[in-house]
From TrEMBL, chain A:
Keywords: 2Fe-2S, Flavoprotein, FMN, Iron, Iron-sulfur, Metal-binding, Oxidoreductase. It comes from Aliishimia ponticola. This is Oxidoreductase. PANTHER family: CARNITINE MONOOXYGENASE REDUCTASE SUBUNIT, NADH OXIDOREDUCTASE HCR. Residues 1-106 form the FAD-binding FR-type domain. GO terms for molecular function: 2 iron, 2 sulfur cluster binding; metal ion binding; oxidoreductase activity. Residues 228-315 form the 2Fe-2S ferredoxin-type domain.
Automatic annotation (TrEMBL), chain B:
It comes from Aliishimia ponticola. It comes from the Bacteria. This is DUF3445 domain-containing protein.
Amino acid sequence: MIAQMLRVTEKEALTPLVTRFRFEHPDGAPLPLFSGGAHVVVEMPYGDMLRRNAYSLISAPDDGSGYEIAVRREDNGRGGSRFMHGNVATGDLMAVTSPFNLFSLDLRARKHVLIAGGIGITPFLSQLHQLSRMQVPFELHYAARSREEAAGLTFLPSLPHIHLHISNEGNRMDLGAILSGQPLGTHVYTCGPEGLIAAVEDAARRHGWPAAALHSEAFLSPPPGKPFKVTLARSGQTLTVGPHQSLLEALEAARIDIPWSCRGGACGQCETAVTSCKGRIEHNDHWLSDDDCAAQTKIMPCVSRFEGQELIIDR
Amino acid sequence: MTIQFNDETFRDDYTFFNSPVAIARFPFPFDKDDYMYSVNMEPHETGPEGTPFDVRFDVDEHYVSEMRDRAITLDEDPLRCQSLPHMELAGWDLLELIMVSKAADYPDLFTLNRDGDRWHWINKPLGIEQRFTFGDPTTLPYGPMEYITRQAQGDFAVLDQREDNLWMDAGMVTSQADWSLDFDIGMNFFEWHAPVPKAHEMGVFQRALKFLMHVNQDTPARRLNWTMTVNPRLDTSPENYHKWGPEKRTITPENVGQKQYLRVELQTFWRLPRSNALAFPIRCYLINLEDLTSVPKWGRRLHRVLRDLPDELADYKGFAVNRPVIVEYLSKFDDGAPTSAGIYPDETDVALNKVPARV
Ligand code: HEM
Ligand code: FES
């Protein structure tokens, strides 16, 4: 994916944990437009390695004057979000890819129901712009622990079809109530913790929703884990993947080019054949089928890890 | 140099012709002496100057007459252009892509002025001037996809991307190699490719779909496809098979050089920004065997490719009945000499640098 250097023109704390960044072209040139739900990948020179993290765009899809993202600081994460919060200042130049969408609206829908948990509000912020412009019916349900933590609040207009569910105010989300009584042809989109996505799927199944009307994006970042070794079948080279590094990042550090787009186990681009596996692959992706996972003959290097004696991959 | 547009027909009296420039820049599809289906996509990056790969949307000497032929086909059969309701946004995306590209690549032929949503488009070859509001279909005489594809050579399929698949939910199809938009509308990638032999078993479509789903705005791609057509006819549709099917029987050893055409499709793939749809323009180029064999490398190679092509492919492409006559004709141009790699003519054949640049 091609990245261009953009200037950080705004950095604003939305909550104690979430910060908004705005990027613009250094010469003021317009940036490519995008569709609601798209993300960009931001490159961070982090220590002696390059970290690339995907962030949903929160700005208006038809506004090419800049891209905006909201980054939640994950203190137990691998450091990418800490870098954004701690090391990036306005005026910096950063490499940002063009937008790519793995969570687009189904434009056939008669109505769109958007369900966000926590930082999972981000892809919906660009979708809200698109939906308002298209003037199609929608409703948004946004669950957060407290108002202080609800980074999306700043961006949400107060409209009757935008619902807040703040759990420390005793206002929890009732999925059954949300999903029942929606008109035929409604599509539902969920973004947030895995538990929320599973709960929506479960409730939807109980209410007889067709699977094609359900869409979700799990906010997956490569989980840290124990270091492990991997051997590359084509060169015979053996690499060590560090505890806060993904296999994809370790390959890139060794200058092995492999295709990617989401870096979060969702798009399938980085799929790699496993030629020998003595041990257990920790499949953290949403791409491979259960059979593929059980067979241990494929791995998604952007998120998955390994524990055992020998892992040889076809790279 | 500006383009001299031919006044020609693609039906009835078939006055279509290729000038020497059009022959020299023809997108010959074979890079080696044999052919089998493959996942033959490559980045749609600029190719050698003057070739059809030089710009995003090639405009050539056939432009004006091709657009006239499209209008006739649409008059007779409006269902050649369809767009399901959810594809209107993709139609605007496509209109923008084509207008912006044409105006940038052919500034002497096309002009686009934009002031916010108020657009002003001038198409000199077709004598069109239009002021309209981007996003407001009431300000155009047709829907956005139909409006712009009546002014752009080649067929267009516009695919919605959802459920890990592509869906043929809109298109403008008047110059197709025997397939029907009205039949395929609403189908997904595997459904509309079902009639193709061999390629499914080879895993071509699985891999091709995966590739297409990841075509991004800044990474357009292309591939070449080909078939054989009797007479320079654009509309070889199933709907009108009764008109062109019988013409296959008119081929004789005497007329095959003039009446038998190699039909090449330059297919490109574009991610559309606002709708996340995929645009799939299929640009058709025709050349008869007589003109084609004026380039010695192409004559030798086409002979070998058609002679050795698996029967299933000749059947599917619809020229099995004329294959013996075609191969016999071409054999006269094949002296058995080795051919160079790649699709372009050899230096000694036609110097490509003699193809005048168009801008
Ligand atoms: C999304 C874009 C595409 C569209 C809309 C499309 C559409 C079609 C259609 C309508 C046909 C005719 C099928 C019939 O007989 O009814 C066809 C044939 C075929 N397509 Fe595609 N196609 C697309 C992309 C691709 C790609 C990427 C490949 C890559 C390998 C491919 C390979 C083929 C082949 C090999 C045939 C048979 C052609 C022949 O032998 O003349 N297509 N396609
Ligand atoms: S990069 Fe998308 S699944 Fe690995």
